Records
---
Amino acid sequence: MSESKKICIVLHRRDLRLGDNSAVVSAIESGRLLIPIFVWNRQESEACDAGSASCWWLHHSLLELGNQYAKQGGELFFFREPTQSVIERLIREHDVEAVYWNRRYEPDAIKQDSGLKKSLKDAGIEVHSFNGSLLREPWEVETKQGDPYQVFTPFWKNVLASIDPDKPLSAPEAISFEKVRIESCKLDDFNLLPKLDWADSFHEYWTPGEQGAHESLSNFIRNGIDDYKGERDFPAKSGTSRMSPHLHFGEISPRQICHAVQVHLNRKRKDNGQPGADTYLSEIGWREFGYHILYHFPHTTEKSLKPKFDDFPWDNNAKDLKKWQQGMTGYPIVDAGMRELWETGWMHNRVRMIVGSFLAKDLLQNWKSGAEWFWDTLVDADLANNTLGWQWVAGSGADASPYFRVFNPVLQGERYDPSGKYIRQWIPELSELPDKWIHKPWEAPKDVLKDAGISLGETYPEPLVDHQEAREAALAIYEKIK
C-alpha cells in the first residue's frame, strides 16, 4: 500500500446501489482506498428483523451489488457480528481513518447509528453520513409554526417547493480498493432465502438490483406514466410502476426517479406538468411523508398517532385473521389481493386499501396484525410506509381515512375490476362465474353456481361476515371513541 493512500469503510445498509450514492462518491473523492461492507446482525435493528419476503429480495440485491463491485476490481464484504465490533476490528487491522454511510430513519436504526457515530468520533475516526434515501430530511420540513406535518398535501407542497434540482450523482467509473485479505463471511451465511418454497416464484415477477430498478423505471416511463392517473387504481392493468421494493432497498434513489420523470416531461415539452407524472410523483411524496411521520412520531409503530384509538376494542379473532391471511374470506376482491401477495410478495395499492379496511373495519382486527402480516410477506416491506398505510386505513394515523369510510369490497371490486379479470387471475375456482356475480358469488342463483363448478362453503367460502352488518357495528364503535 502506498504511504499516501489512506483507507476508509463504506457501510452499506438500505443503499444497495453505486449510482447517486453520496457515501460511495464522497469516499472515492476523499482519495482513500475503499472497504465496502454489509453487516447482517439480527440483534441490532429493525432492518435485521425483515420478513421472509424482504429477506429474499435482500439476498438477490446484495448479490447484484457484490457483482458490481467485482466488476470494478473490488469486493463487498459480509459480516454477521455487531456493526460496531466489525468496524472497530477493521480499524485496528487495516488502519482505517474514516467511515462513510447513508442515514437511516427508523427509531432503532437512529439509536444504533448515533451510538456508533459517537464511539467512532471519540476514537478519532472520521464519520461522514449522508441523505441517501429521501428528497428532504425529515427535520428539514416543518409547518410555519415549526411543527412536523400531519397532513400530506401541505407537506408535499413544502417539499416540492424546495427539492434539490441538482442532477443525481453518476455511478463511479473507477474505484480504488484496499487489496488485502479481510476475514469475513459469505452472503449465503446470512441464510436470507426463505425455508419454505412459497418464494420460489418471486423471480418470475421481480429482478432485484440496481440494473433491474432502472430497467423497471424506464419501462414504466415509456409505457405507463402518461396514463398513470387513470390506470393506477385498476389491479388487472399494468398501471403502476412497481418501484416500491427497489426504493426500499435503495437500488434507486427518489432523486433519480424525479429526475427521470422530469427528463420525460421535458422531452414531451409539457412545461406545465402532466397529470400522470404529477400524480406519480405525489406517490413518491407519500413515501417521504411516511418517513416524516415515523421520524417525528416513532411511537406510531406500536401505538396510534391519535391516542383515542389506543383503547379501541378490537375483536382479534385468530380464526378470522387466518382466513384473511389465506385469502379465504368469501369476498373475491379481498381474497384475490391476499393471494396475489402470497404468490408475488406484492399487492396492488388499491387492493391494499381494500384488504386493510376489511381487516380493520369488517373483522375489527387490530391494524398491527395486518402490519405484521404485510411485514413478513411483502418484498417492499417498509417500516415507515407500512405503519403509515395501516394507521391510515384504520383511521388512527396521520391524514387518515375518516373513521366513517369503510370500503365496500363488492362495490370496490365492481368499480376497479369490472370484468373480474383480476379476480379470475388469482381465484381460479371462480373463473367460470359470469361478470354479474363475480364480486358477490353468494348472491348467484344455484344453477349459475353449478354451471361454474362452484359449491359455496366447499370450493369457495361463504362470506366471513355480512359487510353491511359489520360496517354498522364498526361505525357504532368508532362513534363512541370519536
---
Amino acid sequence: MLLRHLRAILLGPVTVTIIIPVLIVTTVGAGAVDLGPVARGLAVVVGSGLGAAGVAMLAWTISLFARDGAGTLSPQNPPRTLVMRGPYRHVRHPMFSGVLGIVLGEAIAARSLTLLAWFALFAFFVAVMVARVEEPRLARRFGSDYARYRDNVPRWVPRLRPWRAELPQGSAE
C-alpha cells in the first residue's frame, strides 16, 4: 500500500508542483517581476507560507484517504469509503486546494508570471475536471451519502463551522 501511495503522489502532486514548474522555468523562463527588496522579501514570505500550508493540507488529506478511506489519491486505487473528516467537513476538495496553494505559493515566492499562468491553467483544469469527472464519479460510487455530503459541504469556499454527518451507530467521530 505504501508503494501505491508513493506512486500516486509522484504521478500527481509532485508532477504538478515540482516537475512542471521546473520545466516551465527552464524552458520558458520565470518571467519574474522586480518588486524591489522589501516587496521581494514579502513575496517570499507569503509564497512560502502559502506553499507550506498547501503541503500540510496535502499531507493531511492523503493520510485521511489512507486511514479513513482505505485508499490513495489515485483514481486507480481510490478510497473505499467516503472521507468526511478533518478538512473534508469544511470543503469537498481540500486535497486540490492544497495542491493549488502550493502552485500559487511557488508563483508568488518566485514573483513569476509564467508560474502564475501555470497556476491559472491548472486551476481551470481542476475546476472543470472536478465538476465534470470527479464529482459525478463520487456520486456514482457513494450514492445518497455523497449527495447528502455535497448538499452540506461547499466545493471550494470552506464553511466556517464544520459539517457533522450523522454517523452510523458505533462509529467514532
